[in-house]
Amino acid sequence: MPPVLHLTPEEVGSPEKRGKYAVTLVGCGQKALAHALAFAEAGFRVTCTDVDQSAVKRLSKGNVQLDDRQAEAKLKSFTRKEQVNATSDLKAAVSKADIVVFTVYPKLDAKKRVDTSEVESVCRQVGSALQRGSLFVYAGLAGLGFVEGVVREKLEDTSGLKAGQDFGLAYYPPLDGTQEAAVKPAVAADDKYSLNAAAIILEAAMGKAVIKIPNVKVAELASLFAAVKLDVETALANELAMFCEAARIDYTEIPFLSNENLCKSLAPSISDETNRDETLLLLENAENLSMKLRIPVIARQVNDDTARHALNITQDALRSGGKTLRRARVALFGAAEPGTAAALFAEMLQAKGAKVSRYNPRAANNPSAEESVALKKTLNETVEGTDCVVVLSGQEQLKRLNLKKLHALMKSPAALVDLAGTVEPAKAEKEGFVYRGLGRGTWKK
Fold first, then answer.
1. 155 pLDDT above the threshold of 90
2. Is residue 415 within 8 Å of residue 388, measured between CB atoms?
C-alpha cells in the first residue's frame, strides 16, 4: 500500500501515477457518485460500497442518475470500463483502500434531533477494516465537534489505530452548487500529515486548489454558517414572494432580480432545501451551548410555513375551476426529499383528501424507500387524468414543459401551480390552465 500520509504532489502528478491508488467511497448517494466521478476522471481506481444492496446493484449495472447529464454519461462509461466498481462487501473494499471517502450522513428524527446511529455503525465497520497508513476523509454532514467526537472515536475504537499517527483523518465539508458560491472548497484536519495528504489527494481529484484549515471544528462551523446563510436567504425570498402575490405583482419582474447572483440567492422555493439539516444541526449545537439563535429559527419557520401557503394557492386554483382538494388528483413535478417543505406539502395534500402522484426526472428510476409519495416513471403517466399539476422545482427538464400536451392529458378545467418560477402565467392561461404561482401575483381572476 502506498504511504499516503507522507504523499507529495509529484506522486499523484499524472493519471498514470494516480492509478496506483485505490479510493473507496462509502455510500452510493448523489454526492458519493459525484466524488466517484471526480476521482475516476483524475485516474484513481474507485470502488463504491454501501450497506444498501439495492444502491450497489444499480451502480454495478450502470443505472446511475446525476443532476448533470454529461457527468452521468461519464460515470456510466467508467462503470462499464470497471474503473468505477461497486460492492456490498464494505470491509473488503475498505481493507484494499489507500483513501476512504465517507459520505454517510447523520439523520434527523421525527423531533428534528440529530440521529448519528447509522454513521456510528458504519464507522465501526470501516474501522474494523481500516489499514495502517491509509487516509480517511469524512465528507458528510457535521455539527460542531462531530468529526472528533463521533467519527474519530469510533474509528480508533474499532481499528486499534490512532488518527494522525497510524492513519490520516480529514474533514471535507460537503458543498452543493449554491454553497460553492459562498464557500471555497476546503479540507480540514487537526494534524499536519492528514491535512497535507488530504489536500494533495483532493486537489488531484478536483483539479483545483483547496483551502487547508488546520482545525476541524472551524471547518465544521464554516460549512454550517454557509448553509444557514442560504437558508435565511430562501426564507427572505419566500416572504417577499408572498408579499408580491398579495400586491398582484410578479416577483420575477422585480428589477434587482435581473442580477444573476441576487436571482440565485433570492429564489423562492419549497423544494430546494439542501440547507435544512445544517440549520437544524447548528440550532442543536447552540442549544447544547445554552444559546438561542433567533434568525435561523425564524427562517426555518418561514420556510415551513411556505409549504402551507403552497397548499392554500393549490386549493385556490382548484376552487377557481369548481373543484376541491378532497378527491382531486394532483401531480407533483420535481424533488420532495423526506423532511423538506416540499415533502410536508405533499403530506398536507394527502391529509386534505387529494390523491397525489409525483414525477422527478432526476430519480424516476431510483425511488427512495422513504418517499411519502410514490414516484411515477414517466411524466405522461403522472399527469394523465389529473386535476392539477404542481411544479415543485426548477429542474432543466421541467423548464421545457409542453403545456398544450399537458393540458390535453388532464381533466378540465385543469389547474397549474408553479412553485419554482418556471412557467409564464400568460402562456399557461393561453393553453387553458387555471394558473397560480409562488410570487406570481399576475393571474386572471
1. yes
2. yes
C-alpha distance from residue 33 to each of 59, 60, 141, 276 (Å): 9, 12, 16, 22
Cα–Cα distance between 419 and 333 in angstroms, integer?
Answer: 10
What's the CA gap between 134 and 99, in Å, rounded?
6
| CA 220/CA 284 separation, integer angstroms | 14
For residue 397 the three cell numbers come to 427538464
d(CA 92, CA 80): 21
45-49 and 107-108 as β-strands: parallel, antiparallel, unpaired?
Answer: unpaired
d(C-alpha 370, C-alpha 364), whole Å: 14
Q: How far apart are CA 136 and CA 251, in angstroms?
A: 46
pLDDT of 249: 87
User: How do residues 224-254 score in pLDDT, each as one tens digit?
Assistant: 998 899 889 889 999 999 999 889 888 888 8
* Contact (Cβ atoms closer than 8 angstroms) between residue 223 and residue 183: yes
Residue 46's φ and ψ, nearest 5 degrees, are -120, 135
Over the Cα atoms of the chain, what is R_g?
23
Tell me the pTM: 0.85
Q: What is the DSSP letter of 106?
A: P
For residues 305-323, one letter each, b for 16 or more C-beta atoms within 10 angstroms of the residue's C-beta and e for the rest, the string is bbbebbbebbbebbebbeb
CA dihedral 213, 217, 218, 221 (to 10 degrees): 130
Q: Answer yes or no: are the C-beta atoms of 59 and 72 closer than 8 Å.
A: no
DSSP H/E element including 125: helix 117-127
How is residue 166 written as a grid cell?
A: 497510524
Contacts of 288 (CB under 8 A, 6+ apart): none
Distance of CA 216 to the CA centre of its chain: 22
Query: What does the pLDDT read at residue 175?
Result: 62
Instruction: Answer whether 126's CB lies under 8 Å from 136's CB.
Output: yes
**Residue showing cell 401551480:** 417
- E strand or H helix at 100: strand 99-102
Q: Please say whether the beta carbons of 39 and 48 come within 8 A.
A: no
Question: Measured between alpha carbons, how far is 402 from 394 in angstroms, rounded to an integer?
Answer: 15
Buried b (16+ CB within 10 A) or exposed e, 345-369: bbbbbeebebbbbbbbbbbbeeeee
Cα 151–Cα 65–Cα 141 angle in degrees, nearest 5: 20
Q: Please enumerate in sequence order all residues whose Cβ is within 8 A of that of 139, keeping only pairs 6 or more positions apart, or say none.
A: 31, 35, 101, 102, 103, 171, 172, 173, 174
Sign of CA dihedral 143, 195, 150, 95: positive
